[in-house]
Write a structure and sequence with these properties.
13 helices; globular
Length: 274
């Protein structure tokens, strides 16, 4: 499977996490949800990662894990105060921040075709975000999530070339889990429910453990602009699953934005390989 395929699969998995997390927040505090999500994900990856983690991976894993935690924290707090669709769309703005931070931090070159693809992707995200009117507090918080993910994407590009994807994914997840260890002491435990358990299992096993491995593996074969353009499909999948699960809809302009995102993915497949 090519790098674009790995990332597209990860984005599809992440798209469903938005409505599931929105439902879960009816039952549990955001911080405590992250504790459950990353605790299960850490346990799930541990048997596969224990022989893969090397000493030289620790620092990259910690650094990327810090920004991954910030991204997830701002995302789930923002999701409490905005629509699932909005959260997915604004989160996907990391496709703009990723190449920016990659250039600023590592002077990664950006091809002309990748600028075009990224511009098409950003236009698509903008069209998706225009309908709906008011800017919610949750939208602004989610923008901080996009910035954090942008740094994480740039760091993954930097580190993924020579590091085992399972080992790096595990270290990131373990770091996020470490940041949530205080949650059981500051949040009230929720009552068990089928929607909550479903959301925890899917987001931890699929949306975290499996999808992060796909992300690291996919980014190892692509430039940051190329990967970031494919990442814009997360907005499309978030919209699709938010409609299927929660009944959220967009205007015709929003659907035009979704079409532009698909076009940008084709451009990324043609020009995004390093």
């Amino acid at each position: 499977m090519r790098g674009e395929g790995y990332l597209l699969a990860a984005c599809a998995i992440w798209g469903l996490t938005f409505p599931l997390m929105k439902i879960a927040l009816q039952y549990v505090d955001p911080y405590l949800f992250l504790f459950y999500r990353f605790g299960v994900a850490t346990a799930a990856l541990l048997p596969f990662a224990v022989q893969r983690v090397r000493r030289d991976m620790v620092m990259p894993g910690v650094i990327t894990g810090i920004f991954l935690f910030l991204g997830y924290f701002f995302q789930i707090v923002g999701l409490r105060y905005t629509l699932s669709t909005n959260s997915g769309l604004i989160t996907s703005l990391y496709v703009v921040f990723g190449p920016l931070f990659s250039y600023v931090l590592f002077r990664e070159k950006v091809r002309g075709a990748e600028y075009v693809a990224l511009g098409v992707a950003f236009t698509g995200v903008a069209l998706l975000s225009l309908p709906g009117g008011d800017v919610r507090v949750g939208d602004l918080i989610t923008l901080l999530c996009a910035v954090s993910y942008g740094v994480q994407v740039a760091l993954i590009y930097r580190y993924s070339r020579n590091i085992d994807p399972v080992g790096l994914a595990f270290l990131q997840i373990a770091v996020v889990f470490a940041f949530t260890l205080a949650a059981p002491f500051v949040s009230s435990p929720p009552l068990p429910s089928t929607p909550l358990i479903t959301a925890i299992l899917y987001t931890s096993l699929g949306g975290t453990a499996f999808a992060l491995v796909l992300q690291v593996k996919g980014q190892s074969a692509l430039s940051t602009p190329g990967a970031s353009t494919v990442f814009t499909s997360e907005a499309f999948f978030a919209m699709l699953f938010s409609y299927a699960v929660l009944g959220e809809t967009l205007s015709p302009i929003g659907y035009a934005g979704a079409a532009l995102i698909l076009i940008s993915i084709v451009t990324a497949s043609a020009f995004g390989r390093s």
